[in-house]
Specification:
heterodimer; A: seven-stranded mixed beta sheet; four-stranded antiparallel beta sheet; 11 strands; B: mainly beta; 12 strands
């Protein structure tokens, strides 16, 4: 089975620009979550997509947006980039929306991340 | 509010020594608990998980963790550390109220001395 793949692996942008990050979920998974990991920090939940709709959002402004496609792949878009957006962006896939005790839906499989530098 | 605390930012051990990484959580319900490892330039790899049942769980690479409800802890252990274990380790809680998501600790960076 294929794992979670993300692209690009590294990119550099300037303040005010826009960026799109892409994620292909693990085979058989239908839910994608995005996390932001700033330097020296643990990952922070941005949002989740399930059945092509946003299924919850963390404490991130609306300039962070996303999409999920019928093949369950996903995009993260960030508009009006700020210096503090510099981080590793991690995509995670899972099966289902996380409901059900002890089910595999509760385990997230992470990609290697996209490292964004904003100058 | 839910939170995960990893008190040790950095830990250095000698190769062959035992290891314990601490994790405490704050969450009202019975949590789903995870340990992930992140090597430089890599994503997060799942080491082990706890959902219910036996409070001592075994994971990959010789790691184990013990869930102690009374202490709200889920410490990670390994009897003998290998140089390849040098990495950053993250404890996470899976929250089941509302959207299912993880809350991560800030991580513990492990250095292994030859």
């Amino acid at each position: 089975e294929t794992g979670v793949t993300q692209s690009p692996t590294h990119l550099i942008k300037t303040r005010g620009q826009q960026v799109t990050l892409r994620c292909s979920s693990q085979s058989g998974h239908n839910t994608v979550s995005w996390y932001q990991q700033a330097l020296g920090q643990g990952p922070q939940f941005i949002f989740q997509y399930y059945r092509e709709e946003e299924n919850g959002r963390g404490n991130f402004p609306p300039r962070f947006s996303g999409l999920q496609f019928p093949n369950y792949s996903s995009e993260l878009n960030v508009n009006a980039l700020e210096l503090d957006d510099s981080a590793l962006y991690l995509c995670a896939s899972s099966l289902g929306s996380g409901a059900g005790r002890g089910s595999g839906a509760n385990v997230l499989t992470f990609g290697a991340g996209s490292r964004l530098t904003v100058l | 509010a839910q939170s995960v605390t990893q008190p040790d930012i950095h830990i250095t051990v000698s190769e062959g020594a035992s290891l314990e990484l601490r994790c405490n959580y704050s969450y009202g319900a019975t949590p789903y608990l995870f340990w992930y490892v992140q090597s430089p330039g890599q994503g997060l790899q799942l080491l082990l998980k706890y959902f219910s049942g036996d409070t001592l769980v075994q994971g990959i690479k010789g790691f184990e963790a013990e869930f102690k409800r009374s202490q709200s802890s889920f410490n990670l252990r390994k009897p003998s550390v290998h140089w390849s274990d040098a990495a950053e380790y993250f404890c996470a809680v899976g929250l089941t109220s509302g959207t299912y998501k993880y809350i991560f600790g800030t991580g513990t960076r492990l250095k292994v001395l030859a």
